[in-house]
Design goal:
Distance between the termini: 27 Å
Helix content: over 70%
Oligomer: single chain
Radius of gyration: 20 Å
Number of domains: 1
Number of strands: 0
Largest sheet: none
Number of helices: 12
Length: 306
């Protein structure tokens, strides 16, 4: 079965993979000694004008019909608010590589949501993939619990964030709002920016301080490359293509996150991390890769010719 990518879509997936994979150590560097919700809020406020310019450049209207406001609110909660809040807070207590692996269990959760909420059925190999993902998570939690400084709540928070994002992806694929995806993304980002800012003001105002040069660089990376490009590009692809379309990107992002974090931040890799990487890739592949057509299936009319 051919993967239904156009050359443009494949190029977008490669770019999203590189940008998002490297962003895990970039975010870890940015929130080291800096409030995480405030970091995310700054990134989103600076990213919104970039996203607005992109929509205007493409000639897209940003008007959402009133009938779609409720659905937009639901999509915003599942696709962005829960994911961004829990992921950035959890990242403070995890290595960037481990956070990336846990965050990108999303496709496995997506398969489970599809089965539980949308009537999709899991094949035997997909069920095996879910089991592999569970084992990988257990290995990561085992390492966290094995350290006195470990904070398993952070791993749990990242998994909840991944589950919410997975539900949001399923919902976005099924939305019937008659507006361009980038228009939906702009308003989801705008609403999330306000929510993140309010949470930062409420919970982190006593920790506010001038960002360091490293934090500003991380904020700029997230503003332009994540909120201005990678996230909207991925959501456009997620709405336009079947689940298999994001296979290559989703499978490689946590691997890049682990390797770049080890190289850039000097994070130690343990055997649990390497084993979890293999298990997660196997799990995601089992969920997303297309199944082979049955080899023994006769072609129409073949039996009459024999």
């Amino acid at each position: 079965m051919a993967v239904p990518f156009s050359a443009r879509q494949l190029g977008l997936l490669v770019a999203v993979t590189l940008v998002w994979g490297v962003n895990w150590p970039v975010m870890k560097l940015g929130i080291t000694g800096f409030p995480p919700l405030t970091f995310r809020s700054l990134s989103m406020w600076l990213g919104l004008p970039v996203l607005w310019l992109v929509t205007r450049r493409l000639g897209l209207r940003l008007v959402i019909p009133r009938a779609g406001w409720r659905e937009l609110g639901v999509l915003t909660i599942t696709n962005m608010i829960v994911w961004h809040v829990l992921a950035i807070v959890s990242l403070q207590a995890l290595s960037s590589g481990r956070a990336a692996i846990l965050g990108y269990t999303m496709p496995v959760f997506s398969a489970l949501w599809g089965m539980a909420a949308f009537g999709q059925r899991l094949a035997a190999r997909q069920l095996a993939g879910v089991a592999a993902a569970a084992l990988g998570v257990t290995l990561l939690l085992w390492h966290e619990l094995g350290r006195m400084a470990g904070k398993p709540w952070a791993a749990a928070g990242m998994l909840v964030a991944a589950a919410a994002w997975a539900l949001g992806t399923q919902q976005l694929r099924r939305t019937r709002m008659p507006v361009p995806t980038l228009s939906i993304v702009f308003w989801m980002t705008a609403v999330t920016t306000v929510v993140m800012t309010l949470l930062a003001a409420l919970l982190e105002h006593d920790r506010w301080a001038a960002p360091s040069a490293a934090t500003w660089a991380s904020v700029a990376y997230n503003a332009v490359l994540i909120f201005g490009f990678a996230q909207p590009a991925w959501l456009v692809l997620a709405r336009a293509l079947p689940p298999v379309a994001s296979t290559l990107s989703v499978m490689m992002i946590p691997v890049l996150g682990v390797l770049s974090g080890a190289w850039w931040l000097g994070e130690r890799l343990h055997w649990q991390d390497f084993a979890a990487i293999g298990l997660m890739i196997a799990a995601i592949a089992s969920v997303l890769l297309p199944q082979r057509a049955a080899a023994a299936q006769p072609a129409p009319g073949r039996s009459q010719a024999s």
